């Protein structure tokens, strides 16, 4: 609705709308791996790495449409530079699902591989030992898993806890907290985890071609936002996940 309002009242002002997909840590600038906060797919990285997540809901073949933050910034700068004197109204999808798609199972495998090799260390100095998570390929499978592993035991434990004058209060609260965390992830990210579509980025491709025409190697480096230049396995293992651990994990 906001885009429609802008389009209606822009008059002769150039209007460029950038629609990034799931934004991840920087690829290169200001330095590799920089990120603030925990959002979208990063919630699963944090949940698994800290031992709170033992399953991965989602279709393993679905495309995780991620794009590094600096590429989004580069796209914004190039779009402004190339449309400053025009009265156009253009929308650019800045993502990777069309040009360099990465399937969900590939992201999952890199997360498991990273924390198997470099486990997160708790406050008391003990490492969080992870194991390969259970894949829940459908919404129904996710609900059944949650019911059997968490909700039924929580209901039984709640009765026992009440009958024993809250003797099992700590176990009951810990299990409830883990279940609520997982259900919140499933509810929030179901539209992404079971989404089997890609976004058309033809306008972004035209913008990338315009960026290539800019003179100078430094200029081209700064204005790069081509996801085809990303090796996803290398980026996830050596840039994104280490950056997330460094800047967003909390003990």
TrEMBL record:
Pfam families reported for this sequence: NAD_binding_4, Sterile
Gene Ontology MF, one: alcohol-forming long-chain fatty acyl-CoA reductase activity
GO biological process, one term: lipid metabolic process
Coiled-coil segments: none
Thioester reductase (TE) domain sequence ranges: 1-76
Annotated signal sequence range: none
EC number: 1.2.1.84
InterPro entries hit by this protein: FAR, FAR_C, FAR_NAD-bd, NAD(P)-bd_dom_sf
SUPFAM superfamilies: NAD(P)-binding Rossmann-fold domains
Catalytic activity: a long-chain fatty acyl-CoA + 2 NADPH + 2 H(+) = a long-chain primary fatty alcohol + 2 NADP(+) + CoA
Domain Fatty acyl-CoA reductase C-terminal: 150-250
Nucleus is among the record's keywords: no
Family indicated by similarity: Belongs to the fatty acyl-CoA reductase family.
The protein, known as: Fatty acyl-CoA reductase
Species per Swiss-Prot/TrEMBL record: Salvia divinorum (Maria pastora)
């Amino acid at each position: 609705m906001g885009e429609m309002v802008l389009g209606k009242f822009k008059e002769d002002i150039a209007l460029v709308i950038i629609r990034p997909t799931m934004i991840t840590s920087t690829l290169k600038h200001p330095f590799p791996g920089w990120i603030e906060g925990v959002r979208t797919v990063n919630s699963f990285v944090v949940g698994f790495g800290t031992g709170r997540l033992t399953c991965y809901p989602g279709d393993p073949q679905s495309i995780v449409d991620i794009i590094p933050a600096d590429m989004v910034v580069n796209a914004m700068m190039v779009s402004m530079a190339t449309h400053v004197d025009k009265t156009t109204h253009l929308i650019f999808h800045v993502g990777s699902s069309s040009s360099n798609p990465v399937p969900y199972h590939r992201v999952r495998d890199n997360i498991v591989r990273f924390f198997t090799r470099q486990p997160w260390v708790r406050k008391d100095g003990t490492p969080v030992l992870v194991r390969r998570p259970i894949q829940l390929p459908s919404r129904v499978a996710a609900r059944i898993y949650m019911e059997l592993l968490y909700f039924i035991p929580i209901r039984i434990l709640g009765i026992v806890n009440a009958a024993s004058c809250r003797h099992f209060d700590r176990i009951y609260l810990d299990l409830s907290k883990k279940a609520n965390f997982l259900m919140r992830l499933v509810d929030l990210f179901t539209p992404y985890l079971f989404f089997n579509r890609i976004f058309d980025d033809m306008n972004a491709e035209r913008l990338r071609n315009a960026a290539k025409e800019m003179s100078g190697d430094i200029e081209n480096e700064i204005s790069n936002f081509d996801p085809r230049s990303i090796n996803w396995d290398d980026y996830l293992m050596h840039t994104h996940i280490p950056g997330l651990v460094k800047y967003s994990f909390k003990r």
